[in-house]
């Protein structure tokens, strides 16, 4: 082998080793970023047999008096539970609503008596269905921020969750929170 060829082979070998090291560091950093993003977008809370996944709200325009709230609650227990009330310092009051379509007309009405979470089941509070209404906003939810709310369940008790505020037109992040 000529001296020039060995020198080239050495440079190529060093380049590939250096490239592999850089690639490994890059993949590691991307994995850390992905895990961190999942923690932000898919935060969850537990109380008793209930798991509350990704509470979120939308940013509101200046002067808005209401905001919506959404999450999925899964009951891993053998008996049903019931969401009885919600409270938050972000608004004067918080109401549970149901949206539906009757005779081609979209309706929204408060849910009285709470919302049952069936044993071994799951209920999604999402745009177009069950959802929370934060009424009489004391501050405007801003994209990228969070705000706390306390959920009270009949059997599991109370849990404070953090609502992640997404953009005004968002539908709940980049994945399906009902699953």
TrEMBL record:
This is Copper chaperone PCu(A)C. It comes from Mesorhizobium delmotii. It holds the Pfam family PCuAC.
């Amino acid at each position: 082998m000529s001296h020039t060829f060995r020198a080239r082979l050495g440079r190529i070998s060093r380049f590939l080793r250096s490239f592999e090291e850089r690639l490994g560091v890059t993949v590691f950093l991307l994995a850390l970023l992905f895990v961190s993003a999942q923690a932000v977008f898919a935060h969850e809370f537990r109380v008793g047999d209930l798991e509350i996944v990704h509470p979120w709200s939308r940013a509101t325009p200046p002067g808005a008096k209401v905001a919506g709230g959404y999450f999925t609650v899964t009951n891993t227990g053998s008996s049903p539970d019931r969401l009885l009330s919600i409270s938050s310092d972000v608004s004067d009051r918080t109401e549970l609503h149901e949206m539906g379509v009757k005779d081609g007309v979209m309706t929204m009405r408060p849910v009285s008596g709470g919302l049952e979470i069936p044993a071994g089941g799951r209920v999604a509070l999402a745009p177009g269905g069950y959802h929370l209404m934060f009424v009489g906003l004391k501050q405007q939810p801003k994209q990228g921020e969070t705000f706390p709310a306390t959920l009270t369940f009949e059997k599991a008790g109370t849990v404070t969750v953090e609502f992640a505020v997404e953009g005004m037109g968002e539908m709940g992040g980049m994945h399906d929170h009902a699953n």
